[in-house]
Amino acid sequence: xxxxxxxxxxxxxxxxxxxxxxxxxxTTELVDGRLLSFEVTDRDAKNRFGDVVLQRxxxxxxxSFLTRIMENFGAxxxxxxxVSDICGNKLMCSMVLxxxxxxxxxxxxxxxxxxxxxxxxxxxxxxxxxxxxxxxxRMISIAKDPQILDTIVELRESIPNPIEHMYYLQEFVQRPxxxxxxxxxxxxxxxxxxxxxxxxEWRTNVARGATTTSFKPDKELTEIVHKAAHAVGGGILGxxxxxxxxxxxxxxxxxxxxxxxxxxxxxxxIAKKMMDFVIRSAKK
Length: 284
Prior knowledge:
single chain; D-amino Acid Aminotransferase, Chain A, domain 1; four-stranded parallel sheet; 13 strands; 3 domains
């Protein structure tokens, strides 16, 4: 079997995955997605990526476009373009989760700055504003009152990208200073961790200094994680969950999940579990 791992930045996770792929005895190729080009109108183009591709590009658009191109050429990609598109777009992910009955924070979309104020009133202050596409907690902000909201909107309106002139607004969930990340590979939850926010930081991203501890999920959390993973299409995913006063709520599902923080807290060899799933999937 030939396994191709596509990336646009080499992190510790990619090194671990390559190591486990090679240990499995299968031919492994590491490909920089930034250096690829294709004749997409070639009707006779053949799959040159082997039996299975593990998509690890950080860029949402590069990952989405590249996955669609590779699938069009006949490659089997984990995760699929459908999963990538859903998870990479917070609006799409929220709608899919809600439709599947997965508990998730109340979420609103204002399609122009003219409707932001009244939408925020519906959500209730403080309101969380997120970009539709993004990771590592970038451009996520809390507006505690209409004045702060107006300042954030004014800054967003100055950005020359039209997608920034539409607004994804979410209720602020009262929770402990932590959230939960569950890493899923197919039907297996391979790691579950708490991500504890660093001092003076409300966001729980490891990229922003959060620390991690491992724990065993209870039955309710296990069911919600599986339900969320199924809702977006399955594969190798990071399901992010908050502990609200009403119970667990899923606020994001990540497509190209980072697991450096999870590995630091877990005894499970996460990269090996992921690669085992990739190989099993390719053999089906």
